[in-house]
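A.,

Following up on our hallway conversation. Structure tokens first:
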């Protein structure tokens, strides 16, 4: 079993930055592709960014491309999401997921493990 714990969320003004972290334990971190997703109240969980096992391949939702950067440190069993130029529409609970079977995935249902999430609130 893999346990995922997110941190780094908070309240920030529009235009500001946050860096989210997702620490993994209980498995072989480098065996999993990782993804970040977000869910706003009353909405479905949406894809944000994903990264392959070695970090050589990344994928982003169009809404965050150029503003967010996903990265991972396999030595620290951690994946990061650097979020810049935040806008109120980025407000959501952000969760990380771990996926074993595919090089990279944008589909929430294909992920095997999830963290509890961390709240990001962007004020205007």
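Then the amino acids I'd put at each of the 124 positions:
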């Amino acid at each position: 079993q893999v346990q995922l714990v997110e941190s780094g969320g908070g309240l920030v003004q529009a235009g500001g930055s946050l860096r989210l972290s997702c620490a993994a334990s209980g498995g072989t971190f480098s065996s999993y592709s990782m993804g970040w997703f977000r869910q706003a109240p009353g909405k479905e969980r949406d894809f944000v960014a994903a990264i392959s096992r070695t970090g050589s391949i990344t994928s982003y939702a169009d809404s965050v491309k150029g503003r967010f950067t996903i990265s991972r440190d396999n030595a620290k069993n951690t994946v990061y999401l650097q979020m810049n130029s935040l806008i109120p529409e980025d407000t959501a609970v952000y969760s990380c997921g771990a996926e074993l079977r595919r090089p990279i995935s944008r589909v929430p249902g294909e992920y095997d493990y999830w963290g509890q999430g961390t709240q990001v609130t962007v004020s205007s």
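The mean pLDDT is 97. Curious whether your intuition agrees with the design.

B.
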